[in-house]
Amino acid sequence: MNSVSIKSLYLPGDNHRLHLCQLSGPESNGQAVLMIHGSMENGRIFYNHKGKGFGSFLARQGFDVYVLDLRGRGLSEPVIGKGHKHGQHESICEDIPRAMAWVKSRTEKPFHCVAHSWGGVMLMACLIRQPHWIEQIGRQLLIGSKRTIRIHNPERWLKIDLFWYRLAPLIARLKGYLPVKALGIGADNETRSNLSDISHWVRCDQWKDRYDEFDYHQAAQSLTLPPTWFITGKNDQALGHYQDMCDFVRELDMQEQPCGLIGRKTRYRHDYGHIDILTHEDGPQDHFPVLSRWLHSGALPEVQR
């Protein structure tokens, strides 16, 4: 399984460096993929050094895979700590475009994008705000991505209403940042700004930038965004629920794009959740090949939902 080479690349910025992990398999099919993680995560959601994860799987299928650690996360420098003020505005306007530019410089073809959870929201916001990138992208795969959370159930009340809206801001105010790793609730820390930015968008009906009032929803109506397959796990009850994902699709005016539910009713082995849709040991024998075929050729399974 561990036939994937891992190389760390660093993209310089203003007083920071972004880490971009390059995953390469034995042979290349000439297609590149940029992978973007979500909140309280880093790029390791897609790979590890034992060759596991969806990013590693794609590399073994011949894709040239580049996994971004957003500012302060993973191996990007410096790591998030007290006093760091960057938020999702910097991710959308600076960091994701910088990674796109680097990947584009390494390939003559349009590259593909894979994003998980909130990474999908930031990716789409980047394309809407800087539409010259749209023609550079072949296909996209958004996994468990939603912009608002309107579903109500016990998991939402615990993870969103209690922790994200109430406890997290209090902890972040005391510490100067949200110490996700120390709390054991995720893979990477969050700045107070990012926590506030995400909470604002999740709660608001209008999709506007807090800093300059750019209207993403309105701007999206005049664009033809890249072919995108939106998927989520059947057991994703709060952080990427199917209904909330479909709300995001409608907000993007992309109702003609496919939406898939990964679970037993759609002929997969498990009802996957928000994280194990990317990390489950059965992924390479179950849904990973289906997702890979979409990126490679645009092929979709017969059963979506």
From TrEMBL:
Entry-linked InterPro entries: AB_hydrolase_fold (IPR029058), Hydrolase_4 (IPR022742)
Record-annotated Serine aminopeptidase S33 domain positions: 31-180
Pfam families: Hydrolase_4
Protein name listed in UniProt: Alpha/beta hydrolase
Keyword Transmembrane listed: no
Keywords in alphabetical order: Elongation factor, Hydrolase, Protein biosynthesis
MF GO annotations: hydrolase activity; translation elongation factor activity
